[in-house]
Design goal:
alpha/beta, Rossmann fold, 7 helices, 7 strands, globular, transferase, methyltransferase activity
């Protein structure tokens, strides 16, 4: 069932890939870009993994001098990122891969980054445990995610409209990502003070 769910979500992102940047353009300019910049300002270490690289929206924030790998499970989204990499002449390795089953050894990345990814992972705890596995001891996982509101009325509306969001975009708008992170054996978990009710910046230290 999870494999079938993953295939459906992948197909939706493949379909949206050519227009994805335009679809999120207004939100990107008003809010997301500022949060992405804050997220990437916390990156440290020489070997960085970006999970769910998408069309390459985070390319502008990549730190100088680090070895960076970006993965995505959608070939069409990855193709957009590859074209953007060429235009910007960026030194980043791109690979097609599913976060629920990473082809990397244990303890090999200093920082693992994901932005607006775990809303669309069929088994988010499995994916988060993979991030924990490939992160070095003392390393960090940095997440920027939209989550279920703590406001009961808003949460009811988000739960009500979630099936529509999944069908249209492949993304769940009602995930409790913080609870999923807390289910992993991280040493420390921090919520960035810039976080709001429905968008969280989370730093988890292994």
């Amino acid at each position: 069932m999870a494999a079938a769910d993953s295939d459906k979500i992948r197909q939706r992102y493949d379909r949206l890939a050519p227009w994805f940047d335009s679809l999120e353009g207004i939100l990107e300019g008003l809010l997301f870009r500022r949060l992405r910049k804050r997220l990437w300002s916390q990156v440290s270490g020489d070997h960085i993994l970006e999970v769910g690289v998408g069309t390459g929206k985070n390319f502008a924030f990549y730190p100088d001098g680090a070895r960076i790998t970006g993965i995505d499970f959608s070939p069409n989204m990855l193709a957009q990122a590859q074209r953007k990499r060429q235009r910007k002449q960026l030194d980043v390795d791109l690979a097609r891969m599913d976060v629920e089953s990473l082809d990397y050894a244990d303890n090999c990345f200093d920082t693992v980054v994901a932005s607006f990814v775990f809303c669309s992972v069929p088994r988010p705890r499995r994916g988060l445990k993979e991030l924990y596995r490939v992160c070095k001891p003392g390393g960090q996982v940095l997440l920027l995610e939209h989550v279920l509101s703590s406001n009961r009325v808003m949460a009811f509306m988000m739960n009500l409209f979630n099936p529509l969001a999944v069908r249209a975009f492949g993304a769940n708008i009602n995930r409790d990502t913080l609870k999923n992170v807390q289910a992993c054996p991280f040493r420390n978990i921090y919520i960035d003070p810039a976080s709001g009710d429905m968008i969280k910046l989370i730093r988890a230290v292994k």
